[in-house]
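TL;DR need structure tokens for one chain.
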Amino acid sequence: MKKCLIKAGNGYEVTVGSNLAEELIGYLKSVGFDGKIAIVSDSNVAKLYMANLRKALIDGKYSVATMEFPEGEENKTLKTYEMIMHFLLLNEIGRNDMLIALGGGVTGDLVGFAAATYMRGIRYIMMPTTLLSMVDSSVGGKTAVDMQEGKNLVGAFHQPVAVFADTDYLRTLDENILMQGMAEAIKAGVIGGKDLLDLISRYLDTRDGNILEDIILKSIEIKGEYVSEDEFDCGRRKILNLGHTLGHAIERCTGYMISHGEAVAIGLNKMVDESEKHGELPAEEGTLIRNILIKTGLKQDIPGNISSESLMDAILLDKKTYNDKIDIIMIRRIGDCYIKQIAVDDFYSYIE
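>> reply
TL;DR here they are.
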């Protein structure tokens, strides 16, 4: 079991390891929590893990209410958010009670947004169940729902009070879902340095579970550095969006048939190409990144049935677009990325 501290909000600890239910109970006791707990999960995760978590909390002498919603990015909506609000009200959850997000990125985003806005803000704990949510979305306090016009357009910054990344949850993930999370870890490695990329390459070659725990912790530590410095995403934290401007557009243009992790892999691969093309990223480092991406088995190229015009329409609704300009993340070297502002029209050359 390993821990790291995220210096955002009031500061909170991330615990990475297996069989973390006892750690969760220990945390609640240590902070003197004696209120009610509401667990929210999607339908897939709920049938696997909800009952055991609920029992552990009840055994710890806590009053527990549970809710599940239909799984899938298409349900990360204001309608599902409203369902969560009604659930909390019907169960008389108050400002001194606690929400737990049990699930992947969709659940974390939804529950975090509910926690940010219910009764003007209550505490919540992240218990991510996918590699993608463990290495990325469970940390940093970004919460949101999607709109018809685009992804994560309605939301708030609201930091959790604790994160418990239990690697036991990863045992039920199929290969593709696991590798989608690895794409986010690779992104973190490109931003943070070769040490993480070396760990990822070793894991992909050996599938050593002990390495996986180190990958999760190192990814979180890299993200934590940026979040601590720029909690509200006004400056340097934008570097964590490497590959995401294009990735989010691909998700929207395919009606989320291409998932977030796959879209990030495509977006990252494209920015590697563009950074080389613009004479910045050395070819040998670009090749190293591409070879690791190839090992994941994820798609690497923009689907041929998506036009540049469709992608640009989606990008124009992105939060990173303003005053006819857009922030993109370029790679000078592994471990050295930067924000480049370009005219929106110039982005065509990056996606064709």
